[in-house]
Amino acid sequence: METRTRAWLAAVVDVVLIVAFAVIGRSSHGEAFAPLGLWTTAYPFLAGWALAFVVTRAWRRPFAVWPTGVVAWLLTVAVGMALRVATGQGVVDGNPLPVSFVIVATIVLGVFLVGWRLVARLVVRSRSRRGGARDAAGR
Q: What does the alpha-carbon distance between residue 124 and residue 119 come to, in Å, rounded to a whole number?
């Protein structure tokens, strides 16, 4: 697969997972599925991810756990939380960012943004090992 295709594929996977995070969050709080509401929930995290994509030059190594996946995860959470505070989203009892939300978002986005890259790496390694074993047996 060529680098440009891999970069697009990785970007789509990341964006879909961030939107899925927003959908899960909204549904767990009984919020209706509405495109504008979903956008309002997702865009702070998508902005953080976009910044990470540029900072890491993710198009060069889109499947890399480090730095692409880890930096995408950390900036997605940090910028997402900062934008939520700046826009007054998620305020509970005067607390703009409940600790439980920060913890859950950090864990879920970590599993999503780093996790799929780890799984992809394991699949590639497994396939290359099987291919190497076949080549050795066939000789």
A: 9
Instruction: Give the pair of three-digit tokens for residue 104.
Output: 């859950």
Closest to 109 in 3D by CA, of 43, 28, 18, 47:
18
pLDDT in tens, 110-119: 999 999 999 9
Please indicate, yes or no, whether the overall pTM of this predicted structure exceeds 0.85: yes
Q: Are 72 and 45 in contact (CB under 8 A)?
A: no
Tally of domains within the chain: 1
Distance separating alpha carbons of residues 48 and 79, to the nearest angstrom: 5
Q: Is 62 exposed, middle or buried (0-12, 13-18, 19+ CB in 10 A)?
A: buried
The answer to whether 113 touches 72, Cβ cutoff 8 Å, is yes
Residue 17 has pLDDT above 60, yes or no: yes
Q: Per the structure block, which two tokens stand in for 44?
A: 């702070």
pLDDT class of 139 with cuts at 50, 70, 90: very low
Structural domain boundaries, residue 73: 3-138
Counting beta carbons within 10 angstroms of the beta carbon of residue 83, is it exposed (0 to 12), middle (13 to 18) or buried (19 or more)?
middle
